[in-house]
Design brief:
Elements (H helix, E strand, L loop, with lengths): L9 E7 L2 E9 L2 E6 L5 E2 L9 E2 L1 E3 L1 E6 L13 E3 L4 E3 L11 E3 L7 E2 L9 E5 L15 E4 L11 E3 L1 H10 L5 E4 L1
Parallel strand pairs: 1-15, 4-5, 7-8, 13-14
Antiparallel strand pairs: 1-2, 2-3, 6-15, 7-12, 9-10, 9-11, 12-13
């Protein structure tokens, strides 16, 4: 882990003027374009609404595709994504908005995808303490589509921006969205 970079105290995500599905992430001197949820930034996030939740969050962990990339420099705890890793998006399940292991054919948002979107995932503490059924799940910072198309509620960015951000992101960094 490269400790020569100081942990950021705060990063901010704001919507772009004229397009609620696009935004700007500012982290110290770094300002990068991001894609937001198809519903824009929402104060009252609900499961399936496509909104990126407004609020203050903390990063919990980095998940990354070890079969595609070496471990990036970060101050966050990190875990390699396997084929069994998924995220529970079922509000009726006791594991709602938590990491779960799934076998072939079982449900959940698979973390190991064919595309590159989840090659790096920053898990944040949205709807975790307490977890409230239906208030939104699987809200991450992850890689963007080539066209910066909207997400299902996450904040997405280019790989180079993600790697720059990871160097300075730590467990005490506040992520302010809105």
């Amino acid at each position: 882990m490269n400790r020569r970079f100081r942990q950021l105290s705060t990063i901010r995500v704001k919507p772009a003027a004229g397009n609620p599905c696009r935004g700007w992430l500012t982290a110290g001197q770094l300002t990068i374009p991001v894609a937001l949820g198809r519903g824009g930034i929402l104060a009252n996030k609900r499961e399936g609404d496509g909104g990126t939740p407004r609020g203050s969050f903390r990063p919990r962990r980095l998940w990354w595709r070890g079969d595609r990339h070496s471990r990036p420099h970060t101050l966050l705890p990190a875990r390699i994504i396997t084929g069994a890793d998924a995220w529970c998006e079922d509000p009726g399940d006791r594991h709602y908005n938590q990491w779960i292991r799934r076998g072939d054919g079982e449900g959940g948002d698979r973390l190991k995808r064919d595309d590159q979107l989840y090659d790096f995932i920053i898990e944040i503490d949205h709807n975790t303490r307490p977890r409230i059924a239906g208030r939104g799940s699987a809200v991450f910072l992850h890689l963007a589509r080539d066209n910066f198309g909207p997400t299902a509620g996450c904040v997405s960015m280019t790989k180079s921006a993600m790697l720059q951000l990871l160097r300075r992101l730590g467990p005490r960094t506040r992520i302010i969205i809105g």
